[in-house]
Structures are given as C-alpha cells and as structure tokens.
Design a protein that fits this description.
single chain; mainly beta; two-stranded antiparallel ribbon; signal; transmembrane helix
Length: 137
C-alpha cells in the first residue's frame, strides 16, 4: 500500500465545514439633547423657557440602531443586517463613560453572513413617555 493512500483516510477525517460569525459593535460615548425637545421641536415634558427655549422637563431617552445595506437615501425600516435596541438609559444628556464598569455603552448586532463591505448605520434617539416603548422621536 502506498503511504499516500494510507494517509488519505486520516486527512479526510480532519476535514470539516468551516463556519464564520461576527459582531458589529457600536460604542456610544455621549448623547446630548440640551433643549429637551423631540424631533418636532416640542418639549418632551414641561414647558420651554421663553428666553432660552430650554424645556423645564426632561426627555427619557432610548436608542434604536439599524444596520443596513449601503443606501444613498435611507429608507426607514430596511434593517437588512440587524437591529439593536437600547432601553431608556437616561435623560437629556447621557454620558456613557460615567456608567462605571459598563462604560462605554456597547450594543452588539450579531452577523452570520458574508460581510458586504459598505453599509448604512441609522441611530435613532427616542423619547419614551411613561412605560411605553417608544412614543416620539
């Protein structure tokens, strides 16, 4: 028996299908909404100061992340690669580096496909009223 023939079953036993996975991580350091207003320019809560425009109340901020194919014009809801949701974590200004052992805030989106290269990342900050999960932007 040829030595190559005798080693062939050994090498065939070592062959396995390879599978890869990855993670897209976003590290947020800070978020500022100095006036305390939503995307419509209205106070999240309270009333605006007539001179400065700063609202007397605060916004309760949560984040929504969307990872999608690269788009020149971004369409809402087209998160082809994945989404990430961060619950309410602060008010008008959030400094993630002040969060002790959990700093900075990291949000991971698992990837189980071949990376396409270019992508669009959409980050939305939402004001949450009471216990609702996303009223107002």
């Amino acid at each position: 028996m040829d030595w190559r023939t005798s080693l062939l079953p050994f090498f065939l036993a070592l062959l396995q299908q390879a599978q890869s996975e990855g993670v897209f991580e976003l590290r947020l350091r800070a978020f500022h909404n100095d006036l305390g207003k939503d995307d419509q320019g209205d106070c999240c809560s309270g009333v605006p100061d007539p001179q400065s425009g700063v609202c007397s109340g605060v916004c309760h901020t949560r984040f929504h992340l969307c990872l999608a194919h690269y788009q020149v014009r971004i369409e809402s809801g087209q998160c082809t690669f994945g989404v990430g949701r961060i619950p309410v974590i602060g008010d008008n200004s959030v400094f993630f580096t002040d969060r002790g052992s959990r700093n900075p805030l990291i949000n991971s989106i698992p990837l189980n496909f071949t990376w396409p290269g270019d992508f669009s990342l959409i980050i939305e900050a939402w004001h949450v009223e009471g216990d609702n999960d996303g009223v107002g932007n």
